[in-house]
UniProtKB/TrEMBL annotation:
Regions crossing the membrane: none
Pfam families: YjbR (PF04237)
Protein name: MmcQ/YjbR family DNA-binding protein
Keywords of this entry: DNA-binding
Coiled coil, from the record: none
GO molecular function, one term: DNA binding
Keyword DNA-binding: yes
Organism, scientific name: Mumia xiangluensis
Superkingdom, natural source: Bacteria
Length: 183
């Protein structure tokens, strides 16, 4: 076992599997092992490292039902909750609902009904010049932009085009072939 690895109290009942967590080079990591003996010396504060994020959306949020209909119509698309928010994936995330805008280091503005999509580099300048769009925290540096679906006058045809473009940037070739084969 690696140095500085400490077992946590998370085990799968009866399977003998547990999760060990430790530090190496200043980073936390977890390793699944086949040991269920947990020493009492493990601080309870370490258990928070593995806790799920709280759900930060409601099914009646503005635009979520419409966004679900658009995203789940793509081949192989599925919805998963990640970090407390719905994400739409086809292997990788191609759209996310809800997020925040980074205003300055350490200062964020929460936008609970934001649509976050990947933008093609050729369209990035036009999107950045449009005041309806903003650079989302965490996603922004990787070519993603966000649009608040709670704003009055959201153009759902435009939302569909944004999601389609993002899907085409992310989806595998097999799924793109399925999309092109549709009537």
């Amino acid at each position: 076992m690696a140095r500085n690895v400490v077992p946590l109290r998370f085990t799968t009942e009866g399977s003998g599997a547990g999760l060990w967590i430790g530090r190496r080079h200043g980073l936390w990591y977890g390793v699944r092992v086949r040991r269920t003996t947990i020493p009492d010396a493990v601080p309870d504060s370490w258990l928070t490292l593995l806790m799920a994020h709280p759900v930060m959306y409601s099914d009646d949020d503005p635009g979520l039902a419409e966004l679900r209909a658009i995203c789940l119509a793509f081949p192989g698309a599925e919805e998963r909750v990640s970090h407390g928010r719905p994400t739409f994936r086809c292997g990788k995330i191609f759209a996310a609902f809800g997020g925040s805008e980074k205003l300055s280091p350490g200062d964020h503005r929460r936008v609970g009904s934001a649509l976050i999509v990947k933008i093609d580099e050729s369209e990035m300048q036009a999107i950045d010049d449009d005041p309806r769009f903003f650079v989302p925290a965490y996603y922004g540096p990787f070519g993603w932009r966000a649009l608040d679906l709670a704003d009055a006058g959201v153009d759902w045809d435009e939302v569909g085009e944004l999601v389609d473009a993002s899907y085409r940037l992310i989806a595998p070739k097999r799924r793109l072939a399925e999309l092109e084969a549709r009537p």
